[in-house]
């Protein structure tokens, strides 16, 4: 698994000591390397304030060159807007502690440590998941999306997928991590709003409109594209594989989406579940249900003792 946060316990006492201050004064020391991620890595660190946390370092692949001033300004603006992540407080969202910019094209995001494994790894070990588990996880994710999408301005995750969700150690709680910051930062220095090469890691979770399907040009990330990506995560929970896992490149993916839309769920799933999935993955984004509406869907409202 290449996207899991450290399997360590959070230290709430050390976090509460400095709730409104940066997590460090001048420096931090790496305790251990955790994992390499898109544009960088995650390390477990201890700061000079005695706070143990996760530090995700992003090294943007940009040549500042002649337009250094403009690109640096764009990066600064993107980081400024993303500092709002540190204000998020929800039981299903990793706590963002601080965001630093030690170099013009380097960003460090400090987050709480989590004890758990990615949903992708959880699926690999238990695939496919039964409907009771899928219902429980889906309800948690929908409540989280409702919280994000209802904020002013709305918080768009931009990178919903099973490797960006952590199943906590009790195997019952889901936490959303990695809010597509690397995508937004790269867009801030690129002319291409949704250029396929820059989104390799999340291609199979990208909504049709982000690929220019059904629109005159590629759309920006939105509440609806988050819902589509959530639907793709539901597919992976139900099937054990990523959607569009057999396509080889961007163009195959776009053609497959244009012709067939979202892949069908495996046979044997309940009618309520099939309908719920279809509401997440409507090709026309205006027909997708909002997180609020999905929470009212019969699939999520079924009693916990109903059929698997």
UniProtKB/TrEMBL annotation:
State whether keyword Nucleotide-binding applies: yes
Q: Which Pfam families match?
A: Pkinase (PF00069)
Q: Which domain of life is it from?
A: Eukaryota
Keyword Metal-binding in annotation? no
Give an example GO molecular function: protein serine/threonine kinase activity
| PROSITE patterns on file | PROTEIN_KINASE_DOM (PS50011)
Where in the numbering of this chain does the Protein kinase domain appear?
28-300
What is this protein's name? Protein kinase domain-containing protein
Which species is this UniProt entry from? Macrostomum lignano
């Amino acid at each position: 698994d290449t996207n899991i946060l450290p399997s360590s316990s959070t230290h709430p006492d050390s976090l509460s000591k400095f709730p409104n201050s940066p997590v460090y004064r001048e420096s931090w020391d790496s305790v251990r390397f955790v994992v390499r991620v898109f544009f960088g890595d995650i390390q477990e660190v201890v700061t000079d304030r005695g706070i143990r946390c996760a530090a995700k370092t992003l090294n943007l692949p940009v040549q500042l060159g002649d337009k250094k001033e403009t690109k640096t300004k764009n990066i600064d603006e993107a980081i400024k807007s993303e500092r709002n992540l540190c204000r998020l407080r929800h039981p299903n969202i990793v706590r963002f502690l601080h965001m630093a910019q030690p170099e013009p094209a380097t960003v460090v995001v400090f987050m709480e440590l989590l004890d758990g494994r990615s949903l992708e790894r959880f699926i690999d070990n238990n695939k496919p998941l039964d409907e009771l588990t899928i219902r429980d996880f889906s309800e948690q994710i929908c409540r989280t999306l409702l919280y994000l999408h209802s904020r002013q301005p709305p918080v768009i995750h931009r990178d919903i997928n099973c490797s960006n969700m952590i199943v906590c150690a009790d195997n019952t709680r889901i936490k959303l991590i990695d809010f597509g910051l690397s995508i937004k930062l790269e867009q801030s220095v690129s002319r291409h709003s949704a250029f396929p090469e820059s989104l390799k890691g999340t291609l199979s979770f990208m909504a049709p409109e982000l690929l220019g399907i059904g629109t005159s040009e590629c759309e920006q990330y939105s509440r609806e594209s988050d819902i589509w990506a959530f639907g793709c995560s539901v597919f992976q929970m139900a099937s054990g594989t990523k959607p569009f896992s057999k396509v080889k490149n961007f163009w195959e993916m776009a053609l497959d989406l244009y012709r067939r839309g979202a892949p069908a769920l495996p046979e044997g799933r309940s009618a309520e579940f099939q309908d719920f999935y279809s509401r997440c993955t409507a090709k026309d984004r205006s027909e997708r249900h909002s997180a609020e509406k999905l929470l009212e869907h019969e699939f999520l409202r079924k009693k916990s003792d109903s059929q698997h």
